Amino acid sequence: MAFGIFPKDQEQLRLPPGATTGLVEFTVPKTAGKMFLRIVAVGSGSEPLGGAAPTIQLRAGSGVIATVPAEPAERVSIHDENAEAVAGASWIREANDVFKVSIVISKKSERKWRLRITNNDPEELGFVWVTSTDEAETLQPRISPAGEQRSFGTKAVFNEPLPVITVVVANIGTGALGITDPPDTDIGGGFTLMARPNRIQPNHADSLVFKAQPVTPGRPEDELRTQYVIGTASDSTAAERTITLSRLGVSPPPPLSHKPTKDRKDNKDSKEDVIDKGHGAPPEYIGVAGPVDVDSLFGAGEESMTRQLVELEEKFATLAHFIPPELRPDLSANLLARETEPVAGPGADEAEGRQREGR
């Protein structure tokens, strides 16, 4: 037998704390001796909440609604409108907040069957359930883009690294979700599926990563857009698996201009720049009152300047002393001969004068 997946008009039925689904009809073949239901309580954080189990109730025909107990408790008897026991049922909690309900039908007949779920957790939960006479058929994934978003886009600039588009996909079904399209699949429209998970367990989410073609030279603002039906090993409809991808090209920013402006040519500061920098009036308008002191202009006293002049004179004399005699014909032989004498110390001129007087 095929299976039935609920709700049929939306991806999941969200229930606030204490809220109920109401009685939802499902099909049980008149020849069936067993029936199975799997219910998943979908949390809000892409992972199982692990909270309070919901209340699961069944009704056969117009009989009294029966609350199904958790195993290992004994199956509850389900009666029809004639107060006759027609079936028994119980449930067990599986991994990822999935609850499996087993119904053993003791009196086969064509009758209406209905299910009611009540959220007993203090947080809002979503519910998805699958029915079938084959237990394995109730393990059905249901794909849902996170936040139920269906369109994903990015922007790209010419000659810059391409951004990727990441689509978070959740499995809100009762069985594992397999992605069939392999990595590096060209999905058309200028997009490639770069990476994807192998399997996504119920009540979990993972990412699909896409890359778009580069921006076309000469057409910096071109746009790519495509619709992609996610390949899965599930019975989800094409509408449930369809997402839209887009890539908008963006013109690069204009290059910075290095041309000097008329107010600042050759990187020279203008008069206005000098004033703006806090220097006040330009230097040509600065006046000096009174006599100019050497110390104020050069930062050195009179004694220091005199010493520097004396040192300069001595260096010049030393250089002149070693000029060869053949290059100095203006001096007498007597004066040239004296240049070989030692340089006299302080008071040498006075001693020389007294010696001449003695002669």
Provide the residue-averaged pLDDT: 78
Largest sheet: 7 strands, antiparallel
Helical content stands at 10-25%
Order of helices and strands: EEEEEEEEEEEEEEEEEEEEEHHHHH
End-to-end distance, in Å? 151 Å
**How much is the radius of gyration in Å?**
50 Å
Q: What structural category arises from helix and sheet content?
A: alpha+beta
- Overall 3D geometry? elongated
In what range is the share of β-strand residues? Answer: 25-35%
**Secondary structure tally, helices:** 5
Describe this structure in words.
The protein is an alpha+beta fold and 359 residues long. Helix content is 14%, strand content 33%. It has five helices and 21 strands. The chain has helices spanning 271-279, 294-298, 302-321, 333-338, 348-358; strands at residues 4-6, 13-15, 24-26, 34-42, 55-60, 66-67, 76-79, 85-94, 98-105, 113-118, 125-132, 143-145, 151-157, 164-171, 177-178, 185-188, 191-195, 199-200, 204-212, 223-229, 242-250. The strands form five sheets. Strands 1, 2, 4, 7, 8, 9 and 11 form a seven-stranded antiparallel sheet that branches. The protein has a five-stranded antiparallel sheet with strand order 12-14-19-17-16, with no helix packed on it. A four-stranded antiparallel sheet has the order 3-10-5-6, with no helix packed on it. The protein is elongated and about 150 Å long. Residues 273-289 and 294-300 have low confidence and may be disordered.
